[in-house]
Structure formats: C-alpha cells, structure tokens
Amino acid sequence: MTANILDGHMHARILIDSIADELDQLPRVPGLAVVLVGDDPASQIYVQSKIRMAERLGLRGEVEFLSHDASEADLLGVIDALNARDDIDGILVQLPLPAHIDTLRIMAAVDPCKDVDGLHALNAGRLFHGDDALVPCTPLGCLRLIKSIRTDLTGCHAVVIGSSNVVGKPMAALLLKEHATVTQTHVHTRGISDICRQADILVSAVGKAGLVRGDWIKPQAIVIDVGTTRVEKPEGGYEVRGDVTFDEAVRVASAITPVPRGVGPMTIACLMENTVKAAKARSARLQ
Amino acid sequence: MTANILDGHMHARILIDSIADELDQLPRVPGLAVVLVGDDPASQIYVQSKIRMAERLGLRGEVEFLSHDASEADLLGVIDALNARDDIDGILVQLPLPAHIDTLRIMAAVDPCKDVDGLHALNAGRLFHGDDALVPCTPLGCLRLIKSIRTDLTGCHAVVIGSSNVVGKPMAALLLKEHATVTQTHVHTRGISDICRQADILVSAVGKAGLVRGDWIKPQAIVIDVGTTRVEKPEGGYEVRGDVTFDEAVRVASAITPVPRGVGPMTIACLMENTVKAAKARSARLQ
C-alpha cells in the first residue's frame, strides 16, 4: 500500500475557485502590490508567478521595482505610499532583502491590515494568541492540505521540523489552534528520528534534501514536505528535491506531498486568499 | 536522593536586588499603574502585593479602582489616560475582567511600550518571532528558575502542559528561543504521561491539583509547577496545591519548585523587572 499523494495543483485550483466566488461579492477589485528590491532571478520568478496568478483570478496586481542599492529609506517610502493607497489591499515585500536593509524594520512598516505575508509582529501575535490574523501563506497552505485528509486534528500529535518565523513557527501555531499536540524541532534537536516517529502529522521545513527517512515516519502519518533544495543530477542539470526521502516515505505514510507540485502551488493560492481576506476586512471597516 | 527545591522567595530576592541596582542608573523613578475593575477579594490581594513590592523597591505604584459595573468605555478612558502620562512606565490591567468587558479589546488598548504584562499582540508577536519584547511575568519567572539550574538549554526537550496565552504559550516560546525542543500539550493531548516522560524540563500550568505523578517525570528532569489550586483540607480550612504530586516528583526530579513559595514570588519580581525594562526603553527613546 502506498500513500495518497496530495496534489498541490489540484488543491490550489479548488481554493482559487472558491476565492473567485467570493470576489463577486466584493464592491471593488482587490489590489495586490509586490515590492521587489534588486534583480535576484529566483525572486523575479516568484514575483512574476504571484502577479500572474493575481491577474488570472481578476485581482489588480502591480510590482514596485527598486534597484539593489536602494536605501532603507527608499523602501520605507514605497511602503508608506502603498499603505496610504485605498486601492491597495495587500502588500508583499519579496524576501530576502539586500543585507544593508533591516528586514525587521521593513516588516514592521507594512500596515498590519495589508500584511498579506503575515510577517508583521501584530499578525504573528494574533496568531500566537489564537485570534483572527493574516497568517503566512506557506503554513496556511500546509494546513489546508492536512485538513483535506483529516478535518479534525484534535489530539493528534504534530511534529514540525524547522522553526523559522515564515514557516515553522506559524505552522506550529496553526496546528495548536486546531487542538493538536505540537512538538517544534530544529537544528539543535536531539533524537529527532524518535520524535518524528510519534507524529500523526509531520511537517518538514528545513531545506535539507532527503533529511526525513522512511523509518522516521509513523505508519499512516500525514507527511507535508515544505523543503525545496536544488540538487545536481548525475546526468547534468538540476532537480528540486524536498526534505523527505519520498520513495521511502510513500510506503509508510497515509498521505504525502510531492516536491515539486505539493506545497508550492498552495502558497500562491493562499496569498490570493489573504489578499481577498484583507480586502474584505478593509471594505467592511470603510463601510 | 531528592531534588533540589527551588526557593522562589530566594530567587525573587536576588532578582529584586539586581533591579534595585539598575534603578540607580535611571534618570527618574519608574511608575507602575495597576487597574482593578470590581472587588474580587483574590484580585485585591494580588494588586496589593504588586503595589507593595513596587514601593518597597522604590518604584512609584498606583492603583486605579473601577467599580464592577464600569463600562468598557470607562476602562478604555482610564487606559488612554495612563498611556498618555509621562510618569507611568507600566500599565497592568488585573485579570479576570467582568464578563461584559471584552478583554482582548482592553489588552489591545494598552500602549505596547507600557504593556508590562506582555499581553498585547505586538509583544506576543515579537516574542513569537524571537525578538526583544515585554513578556508575561509568570513564564519569565519560570525561565529564570530553570536557568538557575541549567544555563544552556540548547537541545533539551521541554514539555509545557497547558497552552494559555498568559503562561503556556509564552513559556513554550521562551524555551524555543533558548534552543530547546518544545512540546506544547493541553487538555486534548493523548498519552500525556508518555510525552512528559521525555521532558528534560517539565512545566505544568493547568491548575489541576496533583495531575503530574512521579512516574510522569524523567529522572533528573527540572520540574516547574505553575498550578495553584485551593483544596479543602480534611481537618478543615484550605491549602494551595500545585499541579505536581510533590512528594512523588521530588524523588525523581533533579530540581523542583514547591507550591506555594515557588513560581509565585518570581512572577511579582518579574513584573518589577518588566516595569524597569519599560522605563529604561522609554527613557532611551525620549533622550
């Protein structure tokens, strides 16, 4: 028996369709602004795919380009202008930023009501408290995939590998909010395979290809693989690999996300969901 | 062999002495305001002990009393006035509030820079992100007690029983910040004794007398008991008991807090620490 393979593209399409239905009920077209500093090719691809998805869905998408040597003050000026604009509901600053810019200060400058990346401390605190918040898109997408298999997570033991502010920590907070028992692990964790073997739900978000082996997985667990590592292929060229050794894990888990085509498409779909959520909340307040 | 018994009064005195030294370096006397709504006898005792400690330390302490039928608007008015006052560095709204007042809205109204209880979402988010923040006093006190025994928590497995916003969640966040592997459990957790037996550090904060038995504890673990439950004594009268069955645990743990005289005194000392921290930060900004 092999695991149910969670098709991220299919689940993203389902989510996008439900967002399209909600759009019809809004008084105006929501606007998403993505801010890109510098010309990192990977970042450019991410930004393009976000804007393309927004436009396909019928949102207004725009990109603010700043050169790689833009100052922190330049970037803060752009954010202030976007904060003030009525037609912009979501602001996303593409990370990573150049080293001379203080990422924390930038995140704190985005209006929390437009913070569709969920990285403002106020949104993080609301999530932490179990209140309504704009939540980072990747863990939001992971939770949707998990709940497509198991709607009630009460009392499940979830193990999250990785404790970044963007994925690991908000993932743990979301699972806790669903009444799962949650263990957060990271690079300093000892005996990680024994800990993972207790997991009814295992989420790995570290970016270390093949870290999680088949014998780390509890039979019938749900396994979500957030890792993406570019690995050189023997025959030349590269492939993207996840944190989980898929061929082994697929024989033990009840459900598993592939890499690619697993979590990735859900992240962009959840960005659209957050933008519409922000637009709805702003419309309700302005009425 | 029995455990080292962590004397909360002694550790609180050490902390208070170090705060007194810091006070000498401040340009003015920090002010702490406690807001009490209604006449709950337990709350009155807590408030008095906080103010008494503040004054003994040489802070300015004051209490704003509101009657039990004060409106939310009345309370918000008091908080706004305290937010605006230059001589007030710390504002603490004694919980619980009467049912007709929205506690979340009240917490959100306190200036985050004066939020010495660490309950504003902005402070919670900063803690969650691992940044500098005003942190709730009880978990702060627990961490000090733990670190009095073991200064480096890197790679320890910590289990926190209870996931309240005031104790359980910030406790887990503080332990994670110290690079411990952290499992957060709660009322829905299954197989809790097996989970607790993995803990190098076990913190219980549920308020269920005697919940944690000796055989839940890993030999040589550090055990911190935040619970306080009033239990009727067979001979009449009441006693306060912790979550941990002390007589059993003391034979297994390497260190354990008693109830009373364990975590309690540390909570008040950490409130003083937070007030001075807030005063220092405000002085630095105003300079």
Molecular structure report:
The structure is a homodimer of 287-residue chains. With 287 residues, the first copy, chain A, is of the alpha/beta class. Chain A has 2 domains: 28-111, Rossmann fold (3-Layer(aba) Sandwich), CATH 3.40.50; 136-265, NAD(P)-binding Rossmann-like Domain (Rossmann fold, 3-Layer(aba) Sandwich). Chain A is built from 10 helices and 11 strands. In chain A, helix 1 packs parallel to helix 10 (263-286), helix 6 crosses helix 7 (168-177) and helix 6 crosses helix 10. Chains A and B meet through helix 5, helix 7 and strand 6 of A and helix 5, helix 7 and strand 6 of B. Strand 6 (181-185) of chain A pairs antiparallel with strand 6 of chain B. Chains A, B: Pathway: One-carbon metabolism; tetrahydrofolate interconversion. Chains A, B: InterPro entries: Aminoacid_DH-like_N_sf, NAD(P)-bd_dom_sf, THF_DH/CycHdrlase, THF_DH/CycHdrlase_cat_dom, THF_DH/CycHdrlase_NAD-bd_dom. Chains A, B: It catalyses: (6R)-5,10-methylene-5,6,7,8-tetrahydrofolate + NADP(+) = (6R)-5,10-methenyltetrahydrofolate + NADPH; (6R)-5,10-methenyltetrahydrofolate + H2O = (6R)-10-formyltetrahydrofolate + H(+).
